[in-house]
Automatic annotation (TrEMBL):
UniProt-recorded name of the protein: Large ribosomal subunit protein bL25
Residue span(s) of domain Large ribosomal subunit protein bL25 L25: 8-90
Gene3D superfamilies: Ribosomal protein L25, beta domain, Ribosomal Protein L25, Chain P
GO biological process: translation
Recorded name of the encoding gene: rplY
GO CC terms: cytosolic large ribosomal subunit
Subunit-structure text: Part of the 50S ribosomal subunit; part of the 5S rRNA/L5/L18/L25 subcomplex. Contacts the 5S rRNA. Binds to the 5S rRNA independently of L5 and L18.
Domain Large ribosomal subunit protein bL25 beta: 98-178
Keyword check for Ribonucleoprotein: yes
Keyword Protein transport: no
Species this protein is from: Actinotalea soli
Entry GO MF terms: 5S rRNA binding; structural constituent of ribosome
SUPFAM superfamilies recorded: Ribosomal protein L25-like (SSF50715)
A Pfam family reported for this protein in Swiss-Prot or TrEMBL: Ribosomal_L25p
InterPro entries per record: Rbsml_bL25/Gln-tRNA_synth_N (IPR020056), Ribosomal_bL25/Gln-tRNA_synth (IPR011035), Ribosomal_bL25_b-dom (IPR020057), Ribosomal_bL25_C (IPR037121), Ribosomal_bL25_long (IPR001021), Ribosomal_L25_dom (IPR029751), Ribosomal_uL5_bac-type (IPR020930)
């Protein structure tokens, strides 16, 4: 995806009180670091930053004092109750550089009739070019039969990306729903009770 532009300002106040004042002004405290450089503390515009973070692994063009820096979000801290953004860690990146990121698994298609699929791994670790990070990994389960599976080594990845886990990692499993022993025992008990009630009713009618 294209670069998301964010206009930053230098931050000189620190601490919880300063962070609250920044957020009340519809801004977000952040730190920009990477490549051995000294971390730069900045503030970002609240609304545009919130919209930008809706895209997983977006590439940001952060402009500070006329200088533009490419970066990705490495950590986003949110209020656990209200959900607003408390702080962002931005990692500086360069074109051609590779980074490791977490990417969500996106399932498409339908498995064979009568089967269900279970996503065993919701997100995977990929190494990819910092300026061309995927938002998700698409996995097709179209027509897969009972007992089939999709593993790490089966993932179809964007050009230049590589899976960072074990190729045998289970990503998705296909199965046919089967009743448990308890469910079967319950069904038998219900059937026997219904049969007993029917027999008792018939006996009562004969008498």
């Amino acid at each position: 995806m294209s670069e998301v532009k964010l206009l930053a300002t230098a931050r000189t106040e620190f601490g919880k009180g300063a962070a609250r004042r920044i957020r009340r002004a519809d801004q977000v405290p952040a730190v920009l670091y990477g490549h051995g450089e000294k971390p730069v503390h900045i503030t970002l515009p609240g609304h545009s930053t919130m919209l930008a973070l809706k895209h997983s692994n977006a590439l940001y063009s952060v402009e500070l004092d006329g200088k533009k820096t490419l970066a990705i979000a490495k950590d986003v801290q949110r209020d656990p109750i209200k959900g607003f953004i408390e702080h962002i860690d931005l990692l500086e990146v360069r074109k051609g550089e590779k980074v490791t990121v977490e990417v969500n698994v996106h399932v498409v298609g339908e498995s064979a009739p009568g089967t269900i699929h279970v996503v065993e791994t919701q997100a995977v670790q990929l190494e990819a070019e910092a300026t061309n990070l995927p938002e998700w990994v698409e996995v097709s389960i179209e027509g897969l039969e009972d007992g089939a599976s999709v593993r790490g080594g089966d993932l179809v990845l964007p050009e230049g990306a590589s899976y960072q886990g074990d190729p045998e990692d289970l990503i998705i499993a296909i199965s046919t729903p089967r009743a448990s022993a308890e469910d079967e025992a319950l069904e038998v008990a219900i059937a026997e009770e219904a049969s007993a009630q029917s027999a008792a009713s018939a006996a009562a009618d004969e008498s």
